[in-house]
Design goal:
Blueprint (H helix, E strand, L loop, with lengths): L14 E2 H8 L3 H9 L6 E2 L5 E3 L1 H15 L4 H36 L1
Antiparallel strand pairs: 1-3, 2-3
Helix pairs in contact: 1-2, 3-4
Organism: Amycolatopsis albispora
Pfam families: MerR_1
Protein name: Transcriptional regulator
């Protein structure tokens, strides 16, 4: 019996190139260009076909939006990467503040 629980996994490569293109409303060639440029690297099936995860589809959609705004593919990839780094930094700062608040509360109790 197939392991359907993996479908909830954001990184499970469940979508073919055709399915991914249809979901995103893009041409298959756009997805191939992302792979060629090494900005979205899909898994490969045993037969060598590209398989995309939900996380990769989200990344491709972000890149397409930036591309549509007039950025080159490389610039779009850089912008998306910097946005991800900034988001991670904000999360880390939030966690550190929470830890500092916890320690402050422990010391005043």
């Amino acid at each position: 019996m197939p392991d359907l629980g993996r479908l909830d996994d954001q990184d499970y490569p469940a979508f073919t190139t055709g399915q991914a293109a249809e979901l995103l409303g893009v041409q298959i060639a756009f997805l191939r260009s992302l792979d060629t440029a090494a900005v979205v690297r899909p898994e490969r099936s045993a037969g060598g076909h590209r398989r995309y995860s939900r996380r990769q589809l989200e990344q491709a959609a972000r890149l397409r939006e930036l591309f549509d705004q007039g950025h080159t593919l490389q610039a779009a990839a850089r912008i998306a990467g910097l946005e991800d780094e900034l988001s991670a930094a904000h999360e880390e700062i939030g966690a550190l503040r929470a830890e500092l608040d916890r320690r402050t509360d422990d010391n005043t109790a």
